[in-house]
C-alpha cells in the first residue's frame, strides 16, 4: 500500500492511504500518556503527542474500525481516526469540557464537537454569545476561531457505545490535566457538559492545580462551585450544563436559550 502524508491546519498531520482511509500512525506512537504529557511544555506539543497516543488497545481498535468502515453519508471522506486534541487558543479563560469524541463527529473531522449535531448546537450558541467566530463547524480548515475559549475532553478517543471504561478514562487523564496546567495563567472557568464528564473531570482538576471540596460538588444544569487554588494562583469556577446530545436537545431538556445562559455566565465569571 502506498501511503501519503496530508498536511492539516494548525500544524497537524494526517496519515492516510490513497484510498482515503487513515492508517495507524506508526511513527513514534505514544504508549505512556503520563510521561508524554508531563514533558509537554506548550499546547502545540501536547496536541501533537495526544494525536499519537496508542495507550488503550480497545479504543485504538474501535476508532480505526470506524475510520475504515465509515458512515454511508461520509464514505468519500478521510476520517481522522486518532485521538482528538483540544481546540482553542493558548490564552483561553474558559475551558468547555465534554466526555469523548463522537465516532462520526470528531473522530471523523479531527476537531472537538465538529461534524455532528451536538457540535452544531454548541457552536451556534457559542457564536451567539461571542465566543466563536462563526455558528458552524464542518472540519479542520473551515475558518472557525474560538475567542478566549478552548474545547476539550477527559477522553480523547471515540469509545464504543460512547462509554469509555474507568481504566481508559484514568489512562487518558494526564492529557487534560497537563492541558489545564498549560492554561493555568489564563483559565478561570471550566464548563462541563453532562454528568459523566463532570465526574470524570473532578479528579483531573485536582491533578492540575485546584482543591476539590468534600463532599464533591454535585452536577446539575447551572450548577456552580469555586475550587480553591492549591498553587497560589487563581481559583477556578466550575459550571455544569446538560450535554448537547441529540437526546437532550431534541426533547427540550436543553434548549438553545438554556445553553446560551450558561455560556453567558461562563463569560461573566471569566471576565471576558
Automatic annotation (TrEMBL):
Domain (Uracil-DNA glycosylase-like): residue spans on this chain: 85-263
SUPFAM superfamilies, sorted: Uracil-DNA glycosylase-like
Keyword RNA-binding annotated: no
Xref: CDD domains: UDG-F5_TTUDGB_like
InterPro entries, alphabetized: UDG_Type-4/5 (IPR051536), UdgB-like (IPR044147), Uracil-DNA_glycosylase-like (IPR005122), Uracil-DNA_glycosylase-like_sf (IPR036895)
Keyword annotations: 4Fe-4S, DNA damage, DNA repair, Hydrolase, Iron, Iron-sulfur, Metal-binding
Family assignment from sequence similarity: Belongs to the uracil-DNA glycosylase (UDG) superfamily. Type 5 (UDGb) family.
The name this protein goes by in its record: Type-5 uracil-DNA glycosylase
Amino acid at each position: 500500500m502506498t501511503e501519503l502524508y496530508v498536511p492539516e491546519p494548525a500544524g497537524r498531520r494526517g496519515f492516510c492511504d490513497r484510498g482515503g482511509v487513515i492508517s495507524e500512525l506508526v511513527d513514534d506512537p505514544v504508549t505512556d500518556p503520563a510521561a508524554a504529557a508531563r514533558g509537554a511544555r506548550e499546547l502545540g506539543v501536547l496536541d501533537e503527542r495526544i494525536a499519537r497516543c496508542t495507550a488503550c488497545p480497545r479504543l485504538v481498535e474501535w476508532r480505526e474500525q470506524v475510520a475504515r468502515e465509515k458512515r454511508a453519508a461520509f464514505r468519500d471522506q478521510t476520517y481522522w481516526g486518532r485521538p482528538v486534541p483540544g481546540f482553542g487558543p493558548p490564552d483561553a479563560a474558559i475551558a468547555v469540557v465534554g466526555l469523548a469524541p463522537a465516532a462520526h463527529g470528531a473522530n471523523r473531522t479531527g476537531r472537538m464537537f465538529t461534524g455532528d449535531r451536538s457540535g452544531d448546537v454548541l457552536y451556534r450558541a457559542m457564536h451567539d454569545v461571542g465566543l466563536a467566530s462563526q455558528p458552524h463547524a464542518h472540519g479542520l480548515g473551515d475558518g472557525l476561531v474560538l475567542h478566549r475559549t478552548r474545547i476539550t475532553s477527559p477522553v480523547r478517543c471515540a469509545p464504543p457505545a460512547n462509554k469509555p471504561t474507568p481504566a481508559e478514562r484514568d489512562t487518558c487523564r494526564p492529557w487534560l490535566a497537563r492541558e489545564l496546567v498549560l492554561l493555568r495563567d489564563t483559565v478561570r472557568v471550566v464548563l462541563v457538559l453532562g454528568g459523566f464528564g463532570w465526574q470524570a473531570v473532578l479528579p483531573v482538576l485536582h491533578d492540575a492545580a485546584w482543591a476539590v471540596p468534600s463532599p464533591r460538588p454535585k452536577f446539575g444544569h447551572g450548577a456552580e462551585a469555586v475550587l480553591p487554588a492549591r498553587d497560589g494562583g487563581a481559583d477556578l469556577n466550575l459550571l455544569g450544563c446538560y450535554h448537547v446530545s441529540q437526546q437532550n436537545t431534541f426533547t427540550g431538556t436543553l434548549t438553545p436559550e438554556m445553553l446560551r445562559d450558561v455560556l453567558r455566565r461562563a463569560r461573566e465569571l471569566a471576565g471576558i
